[in-house]
Amino acid sequence: PPLVSLQRVTKVFANGVTALAGLDLDIRAGEFISLLGPSGCGKSTALRIVAGLAKPTQGRVTWPTASSLDHRDDIGFVFQEPTLMPWANVADNVWLPLRLRGLSKRDAQGRIAKCLALVGLEAFADAYPRELSGGMKMRVSIARALSVKPKLLLMDEPFAALDEITRFRLNDDLLRLQRELGCTIVFVTHSVFESAYLSSRIAIMTPRPGCIAAEIKADATGE
Ligand code: ADP
Ligand code: ADP
């Protein structure tokens, strides 16, 4: 059975926009799956629904093999912007999810160091976000997401804001990380290259009525 299964998931926002119309998606344990599609086709919404950050209007999300009721404990989320706390140093940023789970700094110390080492930032534990490059901030975000030892790592266009070289490096680092950790990764991107380079499987999402990309396509083809 899949790790997570989305069945006929529809999401209509309060403003009437339909972000997803009957999405069927299985996420298999251990895979690196990309959600690939144009802006506005509902990739982020699908990811947020998997994370439990948004509720489907219709349809079901199930975790067939999970024993715990709160699957959010097993999820790490990496957003497009690094969303680090500017007033806290790197170590404290990585500590945050552990702190929210009641772990003291002292008890979290080993885990924080390990996660920073995984992303090659062990020397920057005391640095502040403003002192880091964009790529380094993204690495801190990844370390923070990994701190809870997630079974499932959800990444929403994580490298979109980075320059191409940094992006290449992070792609390779991410592949290495997944091999080392064995976690399942769902990676949202609109880059055909990135999805082909990274993933073991690609779910292509097409524009639906009510989303911007569909309108652009309609204009371009005159349909
Ligand atoms: P097509 O219009 O190409 O025939 P389908 O409607 O058959 O596409 O979609 C194929 C699968 O992809 C369906 O299971 C559908 O749930 C899913 N899908 C693709 N893109 C989206 C999207 N933007 N929103 C919801 N589901 C999607
Ligand atoms: P993608 O990640 O593929 O760019 P999104 O999931 O962000 O797509 O958005 C899908 C559609 O839903 C878009 O038309 C977007 O404008 C709309 N949308 C996303 N979030 C909201 C929201 N909170 N309220 C209203 N509309 C939204």
TrEMBL record:
GO MF term set: ATP binding; ATP hydrolysis activity
Q: Which CDD domains match?
A: ABC_NrtD_SsuB_transporters (cd03293)
- Residue ranges occupied by any ABC transporter domain in the UniProt entry: 4-223
Does the keyword field hold Amino-acid biosynthesis? no
* SUPFAM superfamilies in alphabetical order: P-loop containing nucleoside triphosphate hydrolases
Alphabetic keyword roster: ATP-binding, Nucleotide-binding, Transport
Q: Which family does it belong to?
A: Belongs to the ABC transporter superfamily.
- The protein depicted here goes by the name ABC transporter ATP-binding protein
